[in-house]
Amino acid sequence: AERAHRQRQHLVRDLHDGVGGVTANLALLASLGQVEGINSEQKALLAHIEQLALEGNRELRSLMNSLEKDATHWADFLRDFHTSAEKQIAPRNIALDWSITGQVPATPLQDVPAGLSLMRGLKEAVANLARHAAARHAGIRFAFHATWLGITIRDDGSGFSEGTPSTGGRGLGNMRRRLEELGGRLSIRSGHGTVLRFVVPLPLTLSVKPDSALVAPADSSQL
Q1: Residue 97 and residue 140 in contact, taking contact as beta carbons nearer than 8 Å
Q2: Which of 11, 66, 100, 221 is deepest in the core (most CB within 10 A)?
Q3: 95 CB contacts (<8 Å, ≥6 apart)?
Q4: 151 - beta bridge partners?
Q5: pLDDT in tens, 156-165
Q6: Region of residue 7 (left: phi > 0; alpha: psi -120 to 50; beta: else)
Q7: Which residue, among 112, 111, 114, 84, has the nearest Cα to 96 in the 3D structure?
Q8: What is the bridge-based pairing of β-strands 95-101 and 185-191?
Q9: What is the pTM of this model?
Q10: What Cα–Cα distance (Å) separates residue 93 from each residue in 97, 130, 136, 187, 212?
Q11: Cβ contacts of residue 204 below 8 Å, gap of 6+?
């Protein structure tokens, strides 16, 4: 255990000094490049590069924090995701309705990689909403139950048809795979807006479980 801890510490330092330095410097250079005399298209491009670099740096810090911890408290998980979601949708003037129902587990999330995988899947869903939905309002709801967790992400945007090529990218497939690795499932309903429902068993773990581990067959109707 001590050797594994030291290896994680070395990896965190390498990530911080290597990739972390690159993303931080890229954001700084993009910011410094937005000077008088460049046209609006160039300024917008540099601002976009700066935001991407900052987002990459935040993702890296999230990974480093996960490597350093032996457990994550659900309160910290919820706060981090709430902050991330607001940062993604606020620049597009999308209003966020955030809610939590049920009893948030007091027991820490022991499987840190499982928590990180769920977080990445949820962030991907919000990023897709921000980029493609053309929405004015978004809702995120966490519903905690004794043996499972339901998460609903909805918007009032343009929606899509699951049969269209635009839904065949890696983002949706990655979300589904992450949920399968957690023993959960993802359902999507789209028309006037889009509703994504994530259901995962508790306690959260990357050990793949059959769907029978999700206790209620009507889970999705209760989210």
Answers
A1: yes
A2: 66
A3: 136, 137, 138
A4: 142, 198
A5: 998 765 544 3
A6: alpha
A7: 84
A8: unpaired
A9: 0.68
A10: 13, 9, 7, 26, 40
A11: 109, 111, 114, 115, 118, 149, 182
Q: Where do the H-state alpha helices sit in 34-184?
A: 40-68, 74-89, 112-132, 170-181
Q: DSSP for 108-121, please give it.
A: -B--HHHHHHHHHH
pLDDT digits (tens, 9 = 90+) for 108-148: 888 878 888 899 899 999 988 988 888 999 999 999 999 99
Q: Which residues pair with 140 in a beta bridge?
A: 98, 153
Q: How many residues does the chain have?
A: 223
Query: Terminus-to-terminus CA distance in the chain, angstroms?
Result: 39
Q: How many CB atoms lie within 10 A of CB 197?
A: 20
> Which residues pair with residue 95 across a beta bridge?
137
List Cα–Cα distances, 210 to 150, 175, 180, in angstroms: 17, 17, 9
Phi and psi at residue 157, to the nearest 5°: -85, -155
